[in-house]
Amino acid sequence: MPAGSYHLGKSLLRVEQDAGSVTAIFADGTHEHGDLLIGADGGRSTVRELFLPGQQPDYAGCVAWRAMLDERDVPPAIHEELFAHFTYCLPPGELFLAYPVPGRNNETQPGQRAYNIVWYRPTTPAQLADFCTDANGKQHGTSIPPPLLRPAIIAWSKAQARALVAPQAAEIFERDPRPFFQGIFDFISPQIVFGRVALLGDAAFLARPHPGAGTTKCAIDAECLADSIASLDLDAGLAKYQRLQGAFGTGLVRQGQRDGSYLTDQHKPREQRRNKDMSWDVDDLMGDHDGRSMQVKRILDESRRV
Ligand SMILES: Cc1cc2nc3c(=O)[nH]c(=O)nc-3n(C[C@H](O)[C@H](O)[C@H](O)COP(=O)(O)OP(=O)(O)OC[C@H]3O[C@@H](n4cnc5c(N)ncnc54)[C@H](O)[C@@H]3O)c2cc1C
Q1: Fewer Cβ neighbours under 10 Å: the N or C end of the chain?
Q2: Which residue among 119, 215, 248 has the greatest number of ligand 1 atoms within 8 angstroms of its CB, and so is best to mutate?
Q3: Of the residues 192, 202, 245, which should be mutated to test ligand 1's pocket, given the most ligand atoms within 8 Å of the CB?
Q4: What string of pLDDT tens digits covers the 306 residues of the chain?
Q5: In angstroms, what is the span from residue 43 Cα to ligand 1's centroid?
Q6: Which residue ranges does the chain devote to CATH 3.30.9.60?
Q7: Is the CB of 118 under 6 A from ligand 1?
Q8: How far does the centroid of ligand 1 lie from the alpha carbon of residue 206, in Å?
Q9: What is the CATH number of domain 3-55+189-304?
Q10: Closest residue by CA, ligand 1 atom 17
């Protein structure tokens, strides 16, 4: 982004609008006028909360444990075996993925990259509440700043890795001094345009990450919004954006729910689970992952027929 695009330390208080403009009013007393305000402030969007008060994302019943190890810290024997590969481990009811990513400053040269872990684990609301309670007993809701995660929870997560996943993968998880977790949530917005305000990305629709398309959706939202308001007047362009991206976002959230049902169905009593909820079929899983980009294209194509 060009210099001057980010203004740090500003807290949005409210939004005012009339037929010709929109104004964002900040806690420091400053305000900004414009033709259009885009709320691209993520799954816990402040802008969305202002226009859809009280409507919160639904907890999906699982969390993703995250860890990352710089390439130079991966032991040579494990590097040799894993680093070039996308790794899957399938403990019963869970899904552990690991893969190489650019380094902390986007380095892609060998030796300067990193190995990233995303480990989906069914987690009850009571467990989540416990994870989100800091060492002073303060409960932070459904997420907690990673530095406040209790050392005992971190130690437990590492012991779980050692017990449940392949030793090479567990070793990488354990070497990260600070694994953390993200709760997985769903949100379907009943509306993403409010006069001269539009929601975009996770602020508009929060899909479970399984389709692997969250950032693609952000880009398609942005492209659709830009194209719609460039080719039509603002009101008609925003109505088009609402119609097209409303359908696409809803389709992606539903797909994420289907893809993640194996994880969340683990909370059901055993007798209520379908056979396919008992264990992953490895070939099905690999097929699903291979077919992801086509799946997203199908959802996009369907949304364009609305
Ligand atoms: C475990 C996990 C795995 C995922 N894997 C994938 C994947 O493989 N592929 C993929 O495409 N997607 C994946 N996603 C989804 C992807 O991360 C999101 O869809 C994407 O980051 C959403 O982008 P965004 O810009 O809408 O929101 P965010 O990335 O959340 O960005 C919102 C920004 O707004 C800022 N902000 C929030 N509130 C305010 C405020 N009040 N004032 C100012 N700034 C504010 C935040 O600090 C943040 O920088 C994954 C998500 C999770 C949780």
Answers
A1: N
A2: 215
A3: 202
A4: 899 999 999 999 999 999 899 999 999 999 999 999 999 999 999 999 999 999 999 999 999 999 999 999 999 999 999 999 999 999 988 999 999 999 999 999 999 999 999 999 999 999 999 999 999 999 999 999 999 999 999 999 999 999 999 999 999 999 999 999 999 999 999 999 999 999 999 999 999 999 889 999 999 999 999 999 999 899 999 999 999 999 999 999 999 998 888 888 888 887 777 766 767 777 878 887 778 888 899 999 999 987
A5: 7
A6: 58-184
A7: yes
A8: 9
A9: 3.50.50.60
A10: 214
Which fold is adopted by the domain 58-184?
Answer: D-Amino Acid Oxidase; Chain A, domain 2 (3.30.9)
Determine which residue's CA is closest to atom 7 belonging to ligand 1.
212
Residue nearest to atom 45 of ligand 1 (CA): 41
* Ligand 1 binding pocket includes 46 (Cβ within 6 Å): yes
Q: Which of 11, 25, 38, 41 should be mutated for ligand 1, with most atoms under 8 A from CB? A: 41
